[in-house]
Amino acid sequence: MSKGSAKVLSFWSSMFGLRVHYALDLKGVSYEYQEENLFNKSKELLEANPIYAKIPVLIHNGKPICESLIIVDYIDSVWPNPHKLLPEDPYKKAVARFWADFGDRKVYDAGSRLIRATTEEERKKASEDLKWALMKLDEALDTIAPGKPFFGGDSMNFADVALAPFICWFKGYQKVGGFVLPGPEELPNLHKWVNAVKSVEAIRKSTPSLDKVAEFAEVIRKRAIGSA
Amino acid sequence: MSKGSAKVLSFWSSMFGLRVHYALDLKGVSYEYQEENLFNKSKELLEANPIYAKIPVLIHNGKPICESLIIVDYIDSVWPNPHKLLPEDPYKKAVARFWADFGDRKVYDAGSRLIRATTEEERKKASEDLKWALMKLDEALDTIAPGKPFFGGDSMNFADVALAPFICWFKGYQKVGGFVLPGPEELPNLHKWVNAVKSVEAIRKSTPSLDKVAEFAEVIRKRAIGSA
From which residue to which does the signal peptide run (chains A, B) (predicted)? Predict the structure, then answer.
């Protein structure tokens, strides 16, 4: 499985960083990990990602790859086995990319606004947007993979890896943003998906404690509202 | 070259839409075109892209593909010949994706703010950001393809197709946003790239008139500042 040295620069609770861990762990690739201090970034990170100065970065054989979905795509090309993430079929591949991108545009965006909301109006809007996004994911699962647990059918694919990191933030969304995740009667496919993702060994391995993530969400909130 | 029916729903001056035209035209794929009225979208568009209700959409054999970069990726998978856009090498592919994505995040974003600026401060900031983005593209060309005209070296690749649509907006940025494109002495690689892109037959074929785009930029501006 070795194809040279791989190193990940990231931050433990980053949804974007978790995508990289999940992809590498699903492939069984061993790698070095470097935790970044986001308020005092390492010289290595600044040199590896001079455009955005953001985690995650994968450094593979000395070459930096930036942007989480591009990194997951790269990982899938370099280590196609034993678990291919991007479908071969062009349409299925486009669908997987679409829902991965939806994670950034809609799920992450709404969750981020929820945690940082400074007024009840902002909080309510973000909460509604997050609920809408989760309903769309529930519908998409039913359309793309009816009766199956994952976007990828019986196993996780590119969309699953992109979206799975949001799961460990739900407790934070609840504690900090007052978001109530609708139950299985309202979002049956999403709940089935969450349970299926949580049962994957490679995912469990890299997922931080939900309580720790919720505490960190509180830290972000305090900074956002200027009380920290 | 035929692999079933292809139809593009788009809007003539959309940078995102132009990517789809450029990719199909570089491949020599024939397709039907449907111009959308963005203020009165067709039922077909709303059904094909229920999540975002946005152009461009490619409908291939009855199946809709949404989001311009995902569409270009799809086109490259379905019609890999005679002009492959995504490099086979995983690192080169990641680099091409990175700069395509940079187009959305930095070039489009700055240009959009420039046209819609309602204060001189906003206009100046957007203008500086756009200049910065173009400088980064100039540097990137020199790093990725030294001495070559395109991000793809001797021919256009995924990054070139993603970034080429910005070229026909420069006149609009200038007329509406007062943006002065730095000359070849300051951005030698970018100017070489612009000239090379403009000389590609498939690009010329689909590129709208610069004056018409500039007029349309004025329309957007008037709507943005509330005087239309």
Answer: none
